[in-house]
Every structure is written in structure tokens, then in C-alpha cells.
Amino acid sequence: MGAYILRRLLLVIPTLLGIMILNFTLVQFVPGGPIEQILAQVQGEGDVFGGFAGGDAAPVEETFGSDSEYIGARGLPKEFIEQLEKEFGFDKPPLERFLNMLGNYLTLDFGESYFRSIDVTDLVLEKMPVSISLGLWSTIIAYLVSIPLGIRKAVKDGSTFDTWTSGAIIVAYAIPGFLFAILLLVLFAGGSYWQIFPLRGLTSDNWESLGLGGKIADYFWHITLPVLASTISAFATLTLLTKNSFLDEIKKHYVMTARAKGLSEKRVLYGHVFRNAMLIVIAGFPAVFIGVFFSGSIIIETIFSLDGLGRLGFEAAVARDYPVIFGTLFIFGLMSLVVGILSDLMYVFVDPRIDFEKREG
Predict the structure, then answer these.
(1) Rounded Cα distance, 35 and 85, in Å
(2) N or C: which end of the chain has fewer CB within 10 A?
(3) What is the DSSP letter of 57?
(4) Which residue in 359, 356, 338 sits closest to 347, CA to CA?
(5) Which pLDDT score, from 0 to 100, does residue 292 have?
(6) Is 48 in the same domain as 77?
(7) Which residues of the chain are modeled with pLDDT < 50?
(8) d(CA 183, CA 160)
(9) Are 102 and 243 in a shared domain?
(10) Helices 120-155 and 322-350 meet at what angle, rounded to 10?
(11) 3 sits in which H/E element
(12) Residues 6+ apart with CB under 8 A from 307
């Protein structure tokens, strides 16, 4: 097992390198960099992307000018633009900038945000609790619902209950998370129907003045809709995985032997089958958590105005805040790869019979 873990750890390096090369290369071809954003604001144009939106666009020579490649640079001193390039590091060739970035990342130095004047690491640590909270509650609720439902479906396999619940979870899986989030806002957050839950944020304005019980209640009041929106698609995979695991175990000889001894069906299911069938479901917890954490965080946090990593990444992409973009990509990629290794270790922990080295051989 040690050799397998070592190989997986060594694969982390080229995988992260490939992710960073791909994203850094793509960014070089995306219009509207951080310097263009600043020049557009200096010129009073508000947002650099207005030039790409169509409408009454200025002629190309008026937009770019004769002395600069930047949108909005016409009429500004060339020295000012050169100073901006030097400040952001764009006075160096792309390859040199990329190698410098990798060198800093080796020491976990992700630089400083262009527009927030704060270290990227501090920024990520500040936003991470919100995303972890959302992902953790979504995963726990998905397990609490999916495991009993999957067991019931396995026991009632082929029945009307099994058919209708399968249809329901497949429909839930097919609903886009952002669409379900908007539906929840319209129905329960003061849209066109009821105003039961708050529209945005994770806490109320009077959070500091609340007691411990009030803070807990306020927290769950705010997080209910975001958790529901991010959990809806996780039910299908977990429920069907639980059902199939139970069906596989129910057909094995030891279950028939237990029934032949006169044990009750409840004793057979929860005393024998449950322990073996749940191995793969429990071992997959880290992977499910990281899946919910990544897949829903950007959309859900943006819709519900939650100040987490997903919203941070979205705002950084819009503002072309490259240190934040590349820093969060590196951290997300590293987390995903490490969790993949932890998932494999969890499988071995819950079932020592699993041997990844023999499977690879």
C-alpha cells in the first residue's frame, strides 16, 4: 500500500502542473485583463467588457489607439501604462511570469490580490469556512436521506414504491442546481409567494447582538435554502449506490444462511447486510463532499450572495484578478487530488481486503 500511495503522491505534481499550464495559457487569449479593467475605470467607462457587448461601439482605431494595445488607453500617458505593466508584472514575457509563479507556489506563496490588497492565502482562509459549511451540511443531509431511502428501495425492489422513487430522484438529478436555487428564492424568499427564508447572506445584520441560541437559529435559517439547492442532485447517486450495494449483498449465501437460521428480516438486514453493504457508501464520503463542495459552490454562493470560495472565484474571474484565480485553482486542484488519495485509503480502512497494488499489477 505504501508504494501505491507514493505513486499517487508523485502523480500530484504533473497533474497540478498540467492544470496550471492549461489555465495560464487560456488566460493569455482572454480579452479584458486587469490593466484594461483599470484603464476603463480611469477613463470613466466603468467596465472593460462594455466594448465587447455590441451596440454603439467606437471604431477600432478609436478604441485601441495608435500607441497601446489596451482598450481605454487612448489619451493616457504612456508612462502611466508602463508603470501599471511593471506593477502587475506584465512587463515580462509570459513564460518568465509562469516560471516565477511556479517558483512562488513551491513555497506556498500565492501572491497578493490585484484589487483587494490582501494575500491570496489569507483571502482563501477567510472565505473557506462558508464553502466548507455549505458542502458539509449538504453531504450530511444527502447521506441521511439517501441511505434509508436506498435500503427501502432495495427491500422493495421492483415494487411501485421503487419505481416512483427512482423516477423522482432521476428528475431531481436532472434539475440544474441554479434553476432549483432560483425556484426556492421565488417560492420561499419573498419572490412571488412566501417570505419565509432570507434572500441572501449567511447571517442577519443583528448577528453580533444575538445570544448563542439566537445565532444558531439564525445560521440555520439562512443556510436552509442554499443547502437544499446544493443537495438536490446528490440524492440520486447516493440512493442508487446504496440500493445496488444492498441488492448485491442480499443475494449472497451468508444472507440465505442467516434467514435459514430463523433470524428476523430486520436482524438480517441491519445485523449482517448493512455492515457489508455500507462499506462502499461510507468510504466514498470524502469524494462526495469534495464533489458537492466544488460543483455547487460557485453557482449557489453567487445566487444566495454567500461570501465563500465559489463567489470569490467568480468575482476574481470577472475582475481578471489573476493571483486569486490561479491561487484558488491551485488550492482546489491540490485538495481534489489529496481527497482522491484519502478516498482510496478510506476504502482500505473500512475493508482491508481491498488491495490497490494487486489491482494495478
Answers:
(1) 7
(2) C
(3) P
(4) 356
(5) 67
(6) yes
(7) 48-68, 71-72
(8) 29
(9) no
(10) 40
(11) helix 2-28
(12) 127, 130, 202, 301
* Judgement on whether residues 200 and 318 belong to the same structural domain of the protein: yes
Domain count, the chain: 2
DSSP characters for 95-132? HHHHHHHHHHHHTT---B-TTT-SBHHHHHHHHHHHHH
Q: Mind giving me the DSSP string for 241-309? A: HHHHHHHHHHTSHHHHHHHHTT--HHHHIIIIIHHHHHHHHHHTHHHHHHHHHHHTHHHHHHHTT--SH
Confirm whether 81 is domain-assigned.
yes
In a domain, 195, yes or no: yes
| Confidence (pLDDT) at 19 | 83
Q: Are 197 and 297 in a shared domain?
A: yes
| pLDDT (tens digit per residue) in 150-165 | 888 888 888 899 899 8
Cβ contact 150:239 at 8 Å: yes
Taking only the tens place, the pLDDT of each residue in 75-94 is 556 666 676 666 667 777 88
Instruction: Give me the residue label for grid cell 425556484.
Output: 183
Cell numbers of 227, please?
Answer: 443547502
Which residue in this structure is represented by grid cell 495560464? 24
Ordered DSSP codes for 172-193:
HHHS-HHHHHHHHHHHHBSSSS
Q: Are residues 91 and 127 in the same domain?
A: no
